[in-house]
Task: structure prediction
Amino acid sequence: MENERSRILKKALALIIPTLASVAIMTTTHAETVSFDREAPGALPAGWRSGITGRGSPKWSVEADTSAPSRPNVLKQSGSGTFPWCVRPDVSLADGYVEVKFKPLTGREDQAGGVVWRWKDGDNYYVARANALENNVSLYYTVNARRNTIKYVDAPVPGNVWHALRVEFSGKKIRVILDGKPTSRPMTAISRARARWACGPKRTA
Result:
């Protein structure tokens, strides 16, 4: 049961073509930063798996990017789909935080990046994302592939710029921070669960 409730994933959306430079995870006893600099370009990173909530054909691959905060490599989503994701399923934490550095590149409907946690499967998880087209940060929970809005907060999210999005969670409390600035007061989650970690953006046409 705990294994079922504990995951974080990587999630990005179609046509927004985001790039992800690194992911940080921390609990009270453990801290880890994951980058893609030792991975072979052109393929999914070792130990990660990808999929989609909804329809489409996402494409995740390690690519070189000299602008990345951690050079030389990033993880890039360049396919299309509703809510693509990419997850490393071997890391779990109950309380702590996850943080991703991302850059939204293009997209007609959305240009966004974020993190997913309390991942149960590809149709059930929490999502926090920052959208460059809408200039806001949103918190959602997804149940049976349906996304439900918990909160929207207006915030500047310039496109083609690297950002850091961080989610802190402890019990039922959730706090979302964009580029070092809290987006609101801590919020109460719908239900408590253990987590694994993720990052990525939101959907596009």
Observations:
- The two ends are 35 Å apart (CA to CA).
